[in-house]
Design goal:
This protein is α+β, with helices and mostly antiparallel strands and about 290 residues long. It is built from seven helices and 19 strands. Strands 1, 2, 3, 4, 5, 6, 7, 8, 11, 12, 14 and 17 form a twelve-stranded mixed beta sheet that branches. α1 crosses α2. The longest helix is centred in the N-terminal third of the chain and has 11 residues. The protein is globular and about 55 Å long.
C-alpha cells in the first residue's frame, strides 16, 4: 500500500490518501492524518484495502503532496556512518573510523518539509550545506527490547529522506544535532510504502542527483548495520512509538567528501531516490 498526505488546493487542510495507479483515494473516513492511521495498525490497513477506487478519487497529478508525517511527535532518530564507503570519505575529512555500534543522533520535528518544498537557505548561519539521501523507516507498533529476528515486524513502512547538513556547523559544534537540525533540513516523502510491498529493505537502490547530475549511487545492502539491527539497538531499553521515524544513514558521494568540496547553492534541484518508493524532489531556496 502507498500512502500520502496531500491537499487538493493551496491553503486547504491536508488529508490522508492511498495511491492507486495514478490516482489518490482519500482515507479521511479512516483517520484524519498519518500518525492516527499508523496507530490503528492492521485495522486501518484492512479498512483502506477494502475501499473501492471510485468517483471520490482524484488524479495524483492534481494534488499537492506533503511530507507523509508533517509534524513528527518526537525527534527523528538518525544513524551516522552506516555505509563503509561513506565512512572512508568521512575519514578523509573528520578522521572517522567504521563504528562497532550504530551512531545515533536526532533531528528536531521542525526539520521536516515535504516534496517540492524549498530547502531553506541560511546564509548567515552556514555556507556549507550538503546532501544525504537516506532510506527512512516508520515504526508501526510500540515496542522495546526488540530482538533482531523479529525487528522488521515492528516496521509500518518506508519513505525517502534527505538528511540535509550544514557541514561547517557540524564541525564547529563537534556534534551533529545543530548542523543537521536547522529548519527545513529533513525533506521527507513522497509517500510511505508499507512493509509488505518492500520485502527486503536491504535490497533497495538508493541515489541522489543535484541538477540532474548523479552524486550518490548505491544499494542498501551496503549498510554496515541492517534495518533490523538498527531497530534492535535503538529499542534496547527505549520505548519506540507508532510513527517514530528512523533515518538509516547515507552512502558515499556527499559534497564534503569531494575534492574540492561541493555544496548546495540557491536554485539547485535535489532529487533523492529509493527504489520501490519514489523520488523526493526539492529546490534550494534563495538568500
Amino acid at each position: 500500500m502507498r500512502l500520502v498526505t496531500f491537499r487538493e488546493r493551496a491553503g486547504q487542510r491536508t488529508q490522508l490518501g492511498m495511491v492507486v495507479d495514478d490516482r489518490v483515494l482519500p482515507l479521511d473516513t479512516i483517520a484524519r492524518d498519518m500518525p492516527g492511521f499508523i496507530e490503528q495498525g492492521a485495522r486501518a490497513l484492512d479498512a483502506a484495502g477494502a475501499m473501492a477506487d471510485g468517483a471520490k478519487s482524484v488524479a495524483l497529478s492534481d494534488v499537492e503532496l506533503c511530507a507523509p508525517i508533517e509534524t513528527p511527535r518526537r525527534n527523528i532518530v538518525c544513524v551516522g556512518l552506516n555505509y563503509a564507503e561513506h565512512v572512508a570519505e568521512s575519514k578523509s575529512v573528520a578522521g572517522s573510523d567504521a563504528p562497532k555500534y550504530p551512531v545515533f543522533f536526532t533531528k528536531p520535528p521542525s526539520c521536516v518539509i515535504g516534496p517540492d518544498r524549498e530547502i531553506p537557505w541560511h546564509p548567515r548561519v552556514s555556507t556549507s550545506i550538503d546532501w544525504e539521501a537516506e532510506l527512512a523507516v516508520i515504526i508501526g507498533r510500540e515496542c522495546r527490547d526488540v530482538d533482531e529476528a523479529s525487528a522488521l515486524e515492528f516496521v509500518f513502512g518506508y519513505t525517502v529522506a534527505n538528511d540535509v547538513t550544514a557541514r561547517d556547523l557540524q564541525a564547529r559544534h563537534q556534534q551533529w544535532y545543530k548542523g543537521k537540525g536547522l529548519d527545513g533540513f529533513c525533506p521527507l516523502g513522497p509517500m510511505i510504502v508499507t512493509r509488505d510491498e518492500i520485502g527486503d529493505p536491504q535490497a533497495l537502490d538508493i541515489s541522489l542527483r543535484v541538477n540532474g547530475e548523479t552524486k550518490q549511487q548505491s544499494n542498501t545492502r551496503h549498510m554496515i548495520f541492517s534495518v533490523a539491527r538498527l531497530i534492535t539497538e535503538w529499542s534496547a531499553g527505549m520505548t519506540l512509538l507508532p510513527g517514530d521515524i528512523l533515518l538509516t544513514g547515507t552512502p558515499s558521494g556527499v559534497g564534503v567528501g569531494r575534492t574540492p568540496p561541493d555544496f548546495l547553492k540557491p536554485g539547485d534541484v535535489v532529487e533523492a531516490e529509493v527504489g520501490g518508493i519514489g523520488v523526493l524532489r526539492n529546490t534550494v531556496g534563495g538568500a
